[in-house]
Specification:
Length: about 160
Amino acid sequence: MKGALIAVALILFISGNAMAKDVDYKKWFEMSEGYLSPLVRIDDGGFTYIVMNENDKKEISVAFQFVDTDEAKKTCKKYEPGIFNDTYPIDINGTWVKASFGCSGNGRINFYPDSDKGREFLFNELKTKEKVTINGAVSYSTVGFDNSYKELKERLDKYKIAI
């Protein structure tokens, strides 16, 4: 009897987790400063996601963040955290975009489009495509981006008119 109960519990647990994968998220993960896309695993054990938040100019910015990847760990040992470094072109859906990168601590690196044209291109790709792929290797789902963008914009607009 005890074995049967354990088997039923295990089946319910597995089927519950399998069903959770089919959830259609309508927005990204909310955080105090903005939103994060769903995480994407990287082959070398790390992960990546897109960060959308308010920058110093009170504008919405988007960055690709890589955490605990071998390349991020190696690169961030060479550069001071919080300082933006060399322009580094990245391939976004087949278009080369100038980006700068900065380390947010050991093993975490962000890539931001450098130019207004690059930022506009990335926002357009996030709004109009089902996924965004960088360097032909890592793809991010854009499901929920538009709703999250609208919510963040509304939140920032409230700050602008607040006395």
